[in-house]
Amino acid sequence: MTSEEQRPFAQVLAGIPARLLPFLRGVLAELAVPAAAPLPPLSRPRRLNRLPHVVVCLLALALGLAAMDELSDGYRLGFPLGTLSGFALGAAVSLALWRPVPAWWLSLGAAVIAAVGARVGTLPVLTGPGGGPAPGLATGPGPDWPWSASAILAQSLVLFLLALRSPTRVAVGALSLTSLATYVLQGLTGGPVAAPVVRPLVVHYHPTGTLAVVAFAAVVLLGTALRGRREARTQLVRQASLTEEERARRTVLEERSRIARELHDVVAHHMSVISIQAQVAPHLVDDPTEELKENLEGIRQNALEALTELRRVLGVLRSENPEDPYGLGAGAGVAPHAPQPTLSRLDALVENTRAAGLTVTTEIEGEPRPLAPGVELSAYRIIQEALSNALRHAPGSAVKVELWHFPRGLQVRVVNSRPSHPAPPSPGAGHGLLGMRERVAMLGGTLMTSRTSCGGFAVAAFLPGNGSASADGAARTDDTFPGPRGEPRA
User: Fold this and answer.
1) For residue 322, is the peptide bond before it cis, meaning its omega torsion is within 30 degrees of 0?
2) Alpha-carbon torsion (183, 188, 189, 193), positive or negative
3) CA distances from 31 to 40, 90, 158, 278, 280 (A)
4) Cβ–Cβ contacts within 10 Å for residue 473, how many?
5) How does pLDDT run across 300-327, given as a tens digit for each residue?
6) Helix-helix angle 78-95:51-69, to 10 degrees
7) Model-level pTM?
8) How crowded is the C-beta side of 5, counted as CA atoms within 13 Å?
């Protein structure tokens, strides 16, 4: 490689520290600020939601007592330093439940202080130049250094809780600093030494630096993986909830557009009749006055303008799906100018449902009264949607359609029994009930939907006869409906 080729490579290597410094500075800043969230309780079961906290606190107590004994006797730190270091390790494990970053600093500091104190104050196992024990010195096994067994367990728990509650870069930064401290203690400083002796001696101890770093890396990896899995599940649940809300909102808008298209045909019919009557009226009167002709012409012109506006709005609504003008499903084959269904076509709807495999019976009570076109249309659509739901979700069931005519309105009730066999899986969540509520809210009526005691489903709605909305314009969801004679019916 020539000098010209080496120069860009050297520039890249020289730029690496410049890029790493901001990252390292940010990691150290996050390790200096205890910003990690506490470990939350379990969502279920409710009676055991604090079980992880209790288990960790018990482990912290056991590790603290074990560390006190090991550091006081094995490291020969004595009562003050050994007891305080062991207590700090146990307290760090408990503190990690709520403040993992300060807990990591506490455990690392206690372990480093214990290792340094053991290096200058512990009598290790020493051997002479020939490999045998030095005269007059202990020959038992040396201590684990720089990490004792209790310190490894305590630091592993703290790092696991830190990785579980903190960002990945913070956990990796803590692991890196812990590994660096281990390297400085074991690799650069060396093991415990004894007092000077006459002959040269070799220090023997059990190095635990590599084992400790491997254990710490494993728990950090595990905690990071669990944290990523939890965040992914939380994001998936949030996305599913947003998708369901958006689907429901879109269904409501589609149902409102469908209602607007249907009502257009109803209103357009009456406006056309008004226009024709206003045009014909002057010819039905002998010598009509000019004022009468002008008024009738004004009525006709207003009716024609209203029809034009209705057609313009309907064109916008139908432009999204011209093949399905009434929102009945693509390819339904419904003509744009077909008359809207009324309760007079209820028998045909029932026959079609029977042909699909359901047992449907009808019951009509009360004296039929003239109803607003929107009321009849909404009643028909509610019955149609209830029968469709029974076909999809209760195959083989028996369905009863009930109509009660009252002086103040119409009550519709559709009840299906328990299905005779399980329903096939639905391709998606349906929102037919939302459409029912939109229709009832438009008319100021009352809607109730609920499961029955025998395993079926009931849909009941009361629609005012004149189709006038209530003061708040919202559908009521009372559990009480008027019965056949006007009395409350549950």
Assistant:
1) no
2) positive
3) 21, 21, 14, 84, 88
4) 9
5) 888 877 777 776 666 655 545 544 444 4
6) 160
7) 0.52
8) 2
